[in-house]
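#struct-help
A.M.: can someone run this one for me? Single chain, 813 residues.
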Amino acid sequence: MRHLVLAQARANRGRYVASVLAVLVAVAFVVTTLVLGDTVDSSITKSTAARYEGVATVVTEGGSDTEPDDLFAEIVALPGVETTALDVSGPVIVTDAAGGSGTGEAVSIASDDGLRWQQLQDGRWPEGPGEVLVGSSSGRAIGDSMTIGDVLGATVPATVEVVGTVDLGGSPLALDSRTIFADPGPVRSWTGEVTDWEIRVTGDASAVRDVVAALVPEAEVMSGADRATRVADSYVGDIALLRNILLCFAAIAVVVAGLVIANTFAVLLAARTRELALMRCVGVTAAQVRRSVRGEALVVGFVSAVLGVLAGCGFAAAVVALARAADVPLPLTSVSVTPATILLGLVLGSVMTVVAANGAARASTRVPALAALQPLETQPEPVSDSRLRRICAAGAITMGAALLVLGVATANVLLACPGGLLLFVGTILASRRMVPAAVGTVGDALARFGGPVAALAAGNVRRAPRRTASTATALFIGVTLTSTLVVGIGTLKAGAPDLLDENLPVDLTVSTASPVPSGAVERFTTIDGVRSGTEVATGSVTIADTEFFVLGVDAESAASTVRADLRLPEPGTIVLEQSLATELGVSDGESVPVAGETGTRALTVATTGRGAPDLMDIGDLSAFTRSVDVDTMWLKLDDGLSDADLVAVSDEISRVAATAFPASDVGGVVESRQMFEKVLDTMLMIVGGLLSVAVVIALIGVGNTMALSVLERRRETAMLRAAGLSRAGVRSLLVREASIIAGVASLLGVILGLVLGAAGTASVIGMNHLFLGAVPWSQLAVIVLVGGAAGVVASLLPARRASRVSPIAAMAG
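D.P.: on it. Structure tokens below:
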């Protein structure tokens, strides 16, 4: 049997080129998706949490006020611990030599080189308490001097010199120009009572948890990877969600790869039906034929998978290189190729090729040997197979649609992804009936205007549903995937800003320890880059014997400051978050007595979504308490600020806050917003790279099926030539068939892609953030035209070859 397998592989090496290309490109698609997904994942973590790379264990203070020195000494002495670092940080007041002052952050530099995560861009490391490093985006130069003081004013400010710069490219720290880096001792002296600390450990840290539990029970122990994920989540939301989105692309790639491989190999064996039938006529059993085909498929699949893995890694590296050259918002680190990715690519190509070949081999050996000598397309599909196909298609479509609707309704991409895959697979299974019917209808309509050749082409696509479906499936798969990604990208880019606004409603906040005088917010709104602001007060009220804090705002100024569509309070109303309203037993529109320091008044309840703040009109809040002091200001920045502009605006806001309001703190979510937008833009560029691979898959699939379809129709073509059809007529016939099939397959693929793309976006960001007006209709129209043209182009070479074969040679088979 081994000799037969090798002989068949050598004899059919020309035909196997089509299968090798299909398997190679399909495996490359999967490998490219996984490699780019791992690269983006690692790049996000490295940009936001580089300090935890290679760290085994991290101990964080967990709200403890205990000094960490004793704990650190105990951890250092543990057996198996290799290196340790006690990191300290905290807010400081940074004053430039020119007098500009603002709140910044002081971060310690580890004494051990292996745990020193800062990358020195220029200069040298600090060698004493009077030397510091600054960020690469700070605008300060080596040799500059500055004064560092604690935010509480408890110590005498220290004068320091800049001796080097830290490369903060891609890091959210780059958005704060007043971040400084120094040795742990000076940092602790500057930050004083507001010092935060954590301990990083490498090596065997199995005993760390016991030591921490004994000395500082409030502290928290976690792995370096978990700590990195938590820090990354604080900037870009749930990083696991981004990873799951990329895994959904990988799952789609696996299904698409399987369908392309199965379709191509099935058509390949269909062209060899006569050959397999002759083997059975001379004594080879059906089981031996199947084993021979499986062996050939294993060889072809493994070789193709190896080439596909190499091609996928190479394409991913090329995409990363192009992304770096194009200066993508999120710097991509080195290409991340894991053993699991390589193994999956090899298994995928080998196993799927064997499975695809096995199904086709079983189908060809079910027919008696003599009957199999007839062309395969003349053999009707068995009733049992047809019934099973329809049942499976109906079940997959029904279940897939249900999961997709549920995923969209609950904004759960992990439900929508398998639902979309099931709907896609079910549609492919139903294409045996659906595509020929649609193609036949279109062909009949076109035949009225195209003459006899057009009528013959329409009849051919209707009379051979198996061949028509096989030819259309490859293009249908590619166009569906392409349309899904195009629609998904377009709607996601349109809906993501609203999602960010909803989750990050306030750009910056300025909080003060002392009351803010009336009109203080105007000092900030005059700064270039600050669009608007509003003052916020805090007070406590009581409803149903439950006391809680509310924020007092002016609805008019707050409406122009917050980015989310918050429900703002009018005079006489109190806005309560839904869970609090439920806890208090009140409902929207209900009038309830609200008690404060000065008495009780009836206010109308207005409920709002979960996570939103509890609000009152600032005038009403003043009436409930003896004194309402404004202690916070919300600021809204201009849209479209670059990183450099954002640094300049934040720097000026910090300077004004430190000058006008001592011991003030500038915070907010603008860093998280910028980081999330960088991640989103980078992911969309990566998806664009995958989109180009999908187009290649579609073109190769169409070319393969068209070429193999011509091979198995040699007798049919010979009969047409013998009946008087010219060579030009043969070419015209095949091209017209291909144009009809490709056009219908492209249109159906775009329709399904539109549904899947819109549903995918809705499952990620919510139905209320889906804007159908953002669907790129012009691009979808181009996809239909390009798909139809691709079918025609793919048919030109096979049609030319078919027209050159003489009728006598073709009749001989």
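A.M.: thanks! The radius of gyration is 34 Å.
D.P.: also worth noting: Residues 413-463 form the longest helix (51 residues).
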